[in-house]
Amino acid sequence: MNYPNNLADKLGFEAVQEQIKEHCISVLGQEYAEKMKFSNKFHLVKQWVEQVAEMKDLLAARAGEWPQTDYIDLRPWLGPLSLEGNYLSPEAWRDWQRALDVLYKCIRFFENLSEETSPNLRKLTQHYLTKNLEINLDYRAFLPVIQALGDIFDPSGQIKESASPVLGEIRRKKITEELGLRKKLDQLLSTAQKEGWVSKDFSLTLRNGRMVIPIAAEHKRKIKGFVQDESDTGKTVFLEPADALTANNEIKSLESAERREIQAILAKLSERVRPLVPMIEQWMNWLGLIDFIRAKALWAVDHKAIMPEMEEKQEFLWKEARHPLLEISLQKMGKSIKPLNIQLSTEQRIMVVSGPNAGGKSVTLSTIGLLQYIFQTGCLVPVKEQSKMGFFHQIFLDMGDDQNLENELSTYSSHLSNMRYFLENANPKTLLLVDEFGTGTEPGLGGAIAEAILEKLADKGSYGAINTHYGNLKNLADHKKGLFNAAMKYDTVHLEPLYELEIGKPGSSFAFEIAHKIGLPDAIIQSAQKKINKKQVDFDKLLVETSTEKQLWESKNAALEERIRQSNSIKEQYETLKTYLDEEKKNMLNLAKIEAKKLVKEANQKIEQTIRVIKEKEAEKESTKKVRLELANFVETKLKSEQSEKLKVENFNKSEGLDFKIAPSEAGGKSEKWKVESGKLIVGDWVLIENGTNEPTLAQILELKSKDAVVALGGIKSTVKLNRLTKVKAPKQEKKKYAASTGLDLTSKMAHFSHTLDLRGKRGEEVYGMLDHYLNDAILTGVIEVKILHGKGDGILRNLVREQLRRYPQVRKFEDEHADRGGAGVTIVSL
């Protein structure tokens, strides 16, 4: 049992509860939020937390797939409806129509959840389907009722004329009588206006449910009839002509018949729904629970809360834990919270927190208590991933001033009363939280009593945290098994609290430093230092010096880490540049080799030509001289044309050892396979299709359409943009073939082919080209099924994709992906 009874109030849990209630959209959910309570049953807490985590995921991925409005509470009507002969009003049934429709859709959605992704929410719904065998909980019984309500009531909640044949007949007769009466009275009114008995501004009206003519009081005897009413001044009377009496009586009779028939319809509807009342009551409770779980998930989103690892152990590990209420308050002031890293284990069970006043010790204590409490009410927790939550059977808190004048309890007495309860009831599954341990009396005595109590609590195996300024408790934490020190960090340079928790060492209260900062005279401070125990002064001084040196080294370490980071960044840049230069060198070397081969080939050809001329001229002196001169001119020209590349070639020649010996052997590169032709493209031309690789695809034009062309690729037709086509000479051995392709590496295409094409965010004109190219590759590689990812949105992109798919005879069918894997946002194409 938690202690004290108002533990939730002291920790601030009621504020969290109110935030969750505000997220509920129904009274049903708010009732569950009001009943939130701490549980010491681990399996129950684990189930609650997992339900909230699953709902949080659903809100992120599928929020629009089930109703999240009109969670109307039908319970107030269930009692009256259960009584025989009772029936509900049309206004009440209008709410029922909306509420049952929402309830049916919600149950259906949660019943069909995937067992892999949402097992707990699905199990919750299944539990309601089977929880009570005496009550039929088959929600499909709502469908006929929803249909009946739709047949009886229009969207505004009025009963339709088609609700029953009798009602329809009555209303038609009533309309006929009203039209006949109106026609007769219009004639009388027109005559009266001509005679001046009635003002031209007057028109037919109703009094006491009967249609009458307004007429001046002095002329009321001019028309035979009955006065049904008169104006406040008495100058105008509302006359029912004698000729209208019968028709008005008939209309009144039909109105009575209409009311009786409506009552019969409502009574019949109530009789139909009455057997479903117990089932509706059960499902109303379920809907409230779903609303409550949804509210807790939204609260978790607001506070960036997660589902940590959960263990039925008393130890925990929290990374960057945040007090949810304090965080919101700081955000409103434009400030950010300092997260806490806290760990309790079997070796270190009770944390002794010290440090200066207003340094965050009490906030640390409140954070531990509140986060553990909200976790054990089934909420997600504002901590970072990889945190672990422990589990406690009870939380004991001693915080604040609980002095009681009626019981004559002082502050210290109230603290001691709490400690007595702790000592009597604490056990290894208790979380203890004590603020300002031992204060309220003479420090020496208070410290001694606090030390004795703390030793006993440690021996009991309890877990928790205490705040203190007492040096003896800090010393005890250093050597007592189960205790350990922690301190709130303090900036000793600027004399400001840092609100950060540091585990492993005690902290100073920085009393003299704070006194100096606020301007207390140095003489007073020095006098105070002389008056206290020298050992205590030295101890605090050592703590301050240690804290200052630690801050200094932390600052130097941070600077060193920044330099290391910069060095690593420079190293990465160097390695990237080296890789780039190596690649450039390789490319330039290849280019030099190609140029060298070309030069050797041309030189060989020129030498061979020179030798041939010399032989033909039979080595005549003048002819030989002329030919040698031409050869020299050729060499000089080539040297000049290559001079701009000389340095690069020489460098690479030296590194690679290239030999430019002129030889009669063939050294030319491979010739192009396809010869490019100029001229306008026409049907029947052979073209190369640029496909973004080094080897284009050969095809034949079948049809020209504005900026597009229909081409043949083997036995496949495809539409391609004209700007992707290059006209080439027709292949000799393949002229009779419908189309051919060259340089197409099917093995590579199959290895690198993706079975999903992402078109999200693309424009219409981009979609046609990308989809066309993708389907061509899919057909060529023999794929039988692909996915087109286009998203849902307004459905425009999906319609464009599916319209183009209908043009492919190779497309066997296409359909939506499964709802759990994208639904209408993804199209599955079977080829």
UniProtKB/TrEMBL annotation:
One of its GO terms (molecular function) is ATP hydrolysis activity. Residues 525-627 form a coiled coil. InterPro entries: DNA_mismatch_repair_MutS_C (IPR000432), DNA_mismatch_repair_MutS_core (IPR007696), DNA_mismatch_repair_MutS_sf (IPR036187), MutS (IPR045076), MutS2 (IPR005747), P-loop_NTPase (IPR027417), Smr_dom (IPR002625), Smr_dom_sf (IPR036063). Residues 757-831 form the Smr domain. Transmembrane segments: none annotated. GO terms for biological process: mismatch repair; negative regulation of DNA recombination; rescue of stalled ribosome. Keywords: ATP-binding, Coiled coil, DNA-binding, Endonuclease, Hydrolase, Nuclease, Nucleotide-binding, RNA-binding, rRNA-binding. It is an enzyme of class 3 (hydrolase). ATP binds at G355, P356, N357, A358, G359, G360, K361, S362. SMART domains: MUTSac, MUTSd, SMR. Its EC number is 3.1.-.-, 3.6.4.-. Belongs to the DNA mismatch repair MutS family. MutS2 subfamily. Homodimer. Binds to stalled ribosomes, contacting rRNA. Acts as a ribosome collision sensor, splitting the ribosome into its 2 subunits. Detects stalled/collided 70S ribosomes which it binds and splits by an ATP-hydrolysis driven conformational change. Acts upstream of the ribosome quality control system (RQC), a ribosome-associated complex that mediates the extraction of incompletely synthesized nascent chains from stalled ribosomes and their subsequent degradation. Probably generates substrates for RQC. Endonuclease that is involved in the suppression of homologous recombination and thus may have a key role in the control of bacterial genetic diversity. HAMAP family: MutS2. This is Endonuclease MutS2. The gene is mutS2.
